[in-house]
From TrEMBL:
InterPro entries noted in UniProt: Band7/mec-2_domain, Band_7, Band_7/SPFH_dom_sf, STML2-like_C, Stomatin_HflK_fam
Subcellular location: Mitochondrion inner membrane
Entry coiled-coil feature ranges: none
Polar residues: bias regions: 333-347
Region feature (Disordered): 323-360
Protein's name according to its UniProt entry: Stomatin-like protein 2, mitochondrial
Membrane topology listed for this record: Lipid-anchor
Keyword Mitochondrion among record annotations: yes
Entry-linked CDD domains: SPFH_paraslipin
Length: 360
């Protein structure tokens, strides 16, 4: 008899009952009526589960995880709700977009039971209700978008579906955490058209990029030519400045050299026999100039007595003497008039000499 009592106690113990209920039900979130835990007075509720208890057919309380004690016969465990996050596959369905394109779309729904009382008494099957609500909401949201926006605004579409589900499932005690679209299938013809559109868009971008490259190249070439012209003009300007500075320096150097030569010549003429040296120099220059008459032109002008070097030298020395005659102190006008008369006489004699050359 003692053995029979021990066997009966083992069958009625909470641990043996919990293991048997788990094996019979398979999973805790949704148990059939025949697989619900039995009232054994002392019960142990697992973590993240809520057991709804009815007393005499009316809601009594929700058992918390851990040790709980119930009254036999009067109390009955009516529902077992899982408080974990539940993943539900939304079956594939057809939906029509704003531009009348039929799509085959499916998704995944993530939800959690926030109020076990509402989930038990607010709806008959919470998971089925949420799944149907997700499908209808998905079709409604897709009908507001065109085909291109469906792919571009996938995240906003998921957020819109979650908001719509939460508004409708609030009275069921269920909270939709997120919704993700898994696959979107388009008709074959539409897929071909989309592929052609993608290829055309790529060709357009390639053409635009090529034209932009050509434009940038032309701009760079023009900018290079502009910089080259600016640098060339600056170089030419610097060259002209340097050349002008060189010519000015050369002219100044020649003038200084000539002034120095004239100064030395003047000093030499004031020495003894300076007139004779000047006559010799004039005679040499006359002979040198006379020897070059026929080299530059066929027309030759000769004096009436080309062989009379002495008269030419005397005439040149007379001009030189008239120009270098010392002025009489106190009579500048007489000096200037005398010099002018000598110069005029010399010019008249030179004009007469040229006339004789022309006549000859």
């Amino acid at each position: 008899m003692r053995a029979a009592c021990l066997a009966r106690w083992d069958l009625c113990s909470p641990s043996s009952f919990f293991q048997g209920s788990l094996q019979a039900s398979g999973r805790a979130p949704r148990r059939a009526s025949s697989g619900l835990p039995r009232n054994t007075v002392v019960l142990f509720v697992p973590q993240q589960e809520a057991w709804v208890v009815e007393r005499m057919g009316r809601f009594h309380r929700i058992l918390e995880p851990g040790l709980n004690i119930l009254i036999p016969v009067l109390d009955r465990i009516r529902y077992v709700q899982s408080l974990k996050e539940i993943v539900i596959n939304v079956p594939e369905q057809s939906a029509v977009t704003l531009d009348n394109v039929t799509l085959q779309i499916d998704g995944v729904l993530y939800l959690r039971i926030m109020d076990p009382y509402k989930a038990s008494y607010g709806v008959e099957d919470p998971e089925y209700a949420v799944t149907q609500l997700a499908q209808t909401t998905m079709r409604s949201e897709l009908g507001k978008l065109s085909l291109d926006k469906v792919f571009r605004e996938r995240e906003s579409l998921n957020a819109s579906i979650v908001d719509a589900i939460n508004q409708a499932a609030d009275c069921w005690g269920i909270r939709c955490l997120r919704y993700e679209i898994k696959d979107i299938h388009v008709p074959p013809r539409v897929k071909e058209s989309m592929q052609m559109q993608v290829e055309a868009e790529r060709r357009k971008r390639a053409t635009v990029l090529e034209s932009e490259g050509t434009r940038e190249s032309a701009i760079n070439v023009a900018e290079g030519k502009k910089q080259a012209q600016i640098l060339a003009s600056e170089a030419e300007k610097a060259e002209q400045i340097n050349q002008a500075a060189g010519e000015a320096s050369a002219v100044l150097a020649k003038a200084k050299a000539k002034a120095e030569a004239i100064r030395i010549l003047a000093a030499a003429l004031t020495q003894h026999n300076g007139d004779a040296a000047a006559s010799l120099t004039v005679a040499e220059q006359y002979v040198s100039a006379f020897s070059k008459l026929a080299k530059d032109s066929n027309t030759i002008l000769l004096p009436s007595n080309p062989g009379d070097v002495t008269s030419m030298v005397a005439q040149a020395m007379g001009v030189y003497g008239a120009l270098t005659k010392p002025p009489v102190p106190g009579t500048p006008d007489s000096v200037s008039s005398g010099n002018s008369r000598d110069v005029q006489g010399t010019d008249a004699s030179l004009d007469e000499e040229l006339d004789r050359v022309k006549m000859s």
